[in-house]
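Q: Here's a chain of 159 amino acids. Please give me its 3D structure as tokens.
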Amino acid sequence: MPNFVTNVVTLQGIGSDNRFYTIDEDTKHFDFNKIIPEPTTADECVAKYGTGYLDSVDEEGHSLKRLDHSDDRPWFDWYNWHRDFWGTKWNAFGTGIIDDNTIQFQTAWGAPDPIFGALSRMFPDIELRVHSEYEGDGSVDSVYLNGKVVSSVMSEEQM
């Protein structure tokens, strides 16, 4: 059974900025595809993210590593792509808009650090604050500025 991570993100105006959401029957879902879009074809994947086992970062800050080509999926393995480019195997779920500057959502197994970095690069002069609570395993409080972590504090679950 996967552990879930509850992520609380604070960034000026994020709660009301519809660029980051998919809207389904008047419900807003924070959507990683709005920040780092998942490729839909082999050509698009190769054009945006390269091929093979690279270990670098492109000009937009996307990680270029572990693209897993196989006979079944000749262009990439969605699981590894999600883990490498989003930092978690699934898109965000359980979105809650706390206020104009704060949202909350859940992810599976880990915090979406590449998403936080990319979101921070979109607003290079504004601090992005993140609290990621790992189910039964502590939390991490991070501050990003221009795509980089400028502070990070971990706390372990009290037994």
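Q: Can you summarize the key feature?
A: The first helix runs from residue 42 to 49.
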